[in-house]
UniProtKB/TrEMBL annotation:
PANTHER family to which the protein is assigned, alphabetical: ELONGATION FACTOR P, ELONGATION FACTOR P (EF-P) FAMILY PROTEIN
Localisation: Cytoplasm
Annotated metabolic or biological route of this protein: Protein biosynthesis; polypeptide chain elongation
Keywords of the record: Cytoplasm, Elongation factor, Protein biosynthesis
PROSITE patterns xref list: EFP
CC terms in the record's Gene Ontology section: cytosol
Signal sequence residues: none
Stated name of the protein: Elongation factor P
Pfam families named in the record: EFP, EFP_N, Elong-fact-P_C
GO molecular function: translation elongation factor activity
Length: 187
């Protein structure tokens, strides 16, 4: 247990009957009249929902122990993805629901940060951008290059992103893992 005075960005709290919430931002407020309070913006770890919550200053809150480890992605096994701890070489099976849309940017032997609470994987964090090869895209038409248009391209992971018309099959591109946007070619 800790008090609201111990809150920091990124810390994980256990509230409302065991749900885990990550502190996105917080602000201690001391009005001229009345008691101090702490205004927070919390993100639910499982659903991703963001809410504003106000706590009276000094009240006790339960801080959840979330272990964040760098792990290497090995392979997909049916409904789960297998990750290996790079320090202990222990393998961890993570469900498709926890991996979510990050699966679109996971290549074998790629590293990711896995957050674990009491043995349960909560979420995975990929680097901000990854380099992937275009496995299939239609050729751009002559004369279309000046318009700045885009076309769909399938990545080696199976995900489809929008790329400029001059990109061709077999090229390596940089992709933003948060939005799925094309960031540029890789030489």
């Amino acid at each position: 247990m800790a008090t609201t005075n111990d809150l920091k960005n990124g810390i994980t709290l256990r509230l409302d009957g065991g749900e885990l919430w990550s502190v996105v931002e917080f602000q201690h407020v001391k009005p001229g009249k009345g008691g101090a309070f702490v205004r927070t913006k919390l993100k639910n770890i499982t659903s991703g929902k963001v809410v504003d919550k106000t706590f009276n200053a000094g009240i006790k809150v339960e801080i959840a122990n979330v272990d964040r480890r760098e792990m290497q992605y090995l392979y997909a096994d049916g409904e789960s993805y297998v990750f290996m701890d790079t320090d202990t070489y222990d393998q961890l099976f993570i469900s498709r629901e926890v991996v979510g849309k990050n699966a679109d940017y996971l290549l074998e032997s790629a590293t990711a940060v896995v957050a674990i609470n009491e043995g349960n994987p909560l979420y995975i964090e990929l680097p901000a951008s990854v380099e992937l090869t275009i496995s299939q895209t239609d050729p751009g038409l002559q004369g279309d290059r000046s318009t700045g248009g885009t076309k769909p391209a399938t990545l080696e992971t199976g995900a489809v992103i929008q790329v400029p018309l001059f990109i061709s099959t077999g090229e390596k591109v940089k992709v933003d893992t948060r939005s799925g946007d094309y960031l540029g070619r890789v030489n």
